[in-house]
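Incident log, support desk, overnight shift.

02:14 A customer reports that sequence design results differ from what the structure should imply. Their input is reproduced verbatim below. On-call engineer (initials T.W.) acknowledged and began investigating.
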């Protein structure tokens, strides 16, 4: 089935129509993709403003610019709140799509996550239950994603799942004494996942000069950033990364991310996959807020719902 010409914004049918070697996404799929992309956009603002700019301004300007710092902090807090709502709505939309595709295990797992998060907000459950439910839902997403994916893409999904698992484990309280190990393993898994994704997608016929420019830009940005004495601190603020791996691996991951992002963004049918990359950044190595756990799950669900190397949905 060839769906290379899918457009998330130009489809007019609310049902999946088979025939003529084409298919059209359902309204739920379009909604899930739109919410995922919106969450990625506000999440990126959260990273740049709330996690990086506010701490940097507080350290550099001090009390002399308290009003400016407070205004920027307010924008960052607003971005955090909006992202949290959008992520919850996006996971709900993917749950509806899973129901539409008769993936009952995924439906149960996703609904359990939503329920535990809502209960946690109102004080009806503990964070441990939230983290456990996210881990179960990650397994459900992985089981769907690897079904029709190529070996390389399956490997990437396994690596993302491992990163999600280690992130939940490190903040759940279950891994006392092994927090640093969990974070280090999660960081390595994310680096591996991005590289594997790039290798898997490189086999697609839709890669072009734009993707190669993204690769070069990512590598160049990584080299310039790692040369800065402030990069370890910024990386820790933004994602919780400890940068313990060899520098070359981070350069490779940045180059791969640039290649993937540009290659997916230029095709409207795969822009939600580019959003998933941003969501991995927003989630970070170790979730510091509840919605970061959902953000990591949302990124995995989005990647698992599509096999870009074969141009087909994995959930049907």
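02:41 Re-run completed on a clean worker. Output:
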């Amino acid at each position: 089935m060839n769906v290379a010409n899918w457009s998330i914004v130009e489809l007019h049918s609310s049902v999946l129509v088979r025939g003529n070697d084409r298919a059209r996404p359902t309204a739920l799929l379009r909604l899930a993709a739109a919410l995922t992309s919106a969450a990625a956009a506000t999440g990126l603002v959260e990273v740049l403003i709330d996690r990086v700019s506010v701490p940097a301004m507080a350290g550099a300007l001090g009390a002399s610019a308290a009003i400016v710092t407070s205004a920027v902090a307010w924008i960052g807090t607003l971005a955090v709140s909006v992202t949290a709502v959008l992520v919850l709505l996006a996971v709900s939309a993917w749950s509806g799509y899973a129901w539409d595709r008769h993936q009952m295990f995924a439906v149960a797992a996703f609904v359990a996550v939503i329920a535990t998060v809502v209960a946690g907000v109102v004080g009806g459950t503990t964070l441990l239950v939230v983290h456990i439910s996210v881990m179960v839902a990650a397994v459900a997403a992985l089981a769907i994603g690897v079904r029709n994916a190529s070996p390389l893409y399956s490997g990437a999904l396994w690596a993302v799942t491992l990163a999600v698992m280690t992130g939940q484990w490190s903040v759940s309280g279950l891994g006392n004494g092994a927090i640093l190990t969990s974070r280090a393993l999660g960081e390595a898994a994310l680096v591996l996942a991005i590289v594997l994704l790039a290798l898997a997608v490189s086999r697609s016929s839709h890669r072009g000069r734009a993707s190669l420019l993204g690769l070069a830009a990512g590598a160049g940005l990584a080299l310039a950033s790692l040369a800065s004495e402030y990069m370890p601190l910024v990386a820790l603020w933004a994602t919780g990364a400890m940068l313990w791996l060899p520098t070359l691996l981070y350069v490779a991951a940045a180059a791969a991310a640039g290649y993937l992002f540009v290659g997916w963004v230029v095709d409207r049918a795969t822009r939600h996959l580019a959003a998933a990359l941003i969501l991995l950044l927003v989630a970070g190595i170790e979730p510091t807020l509840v919605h970061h756990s959902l953000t990591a799950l949302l990124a995995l669900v989005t990647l698992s719902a599509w096999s870009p190397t074969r141009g087909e949905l994995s959930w049907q």
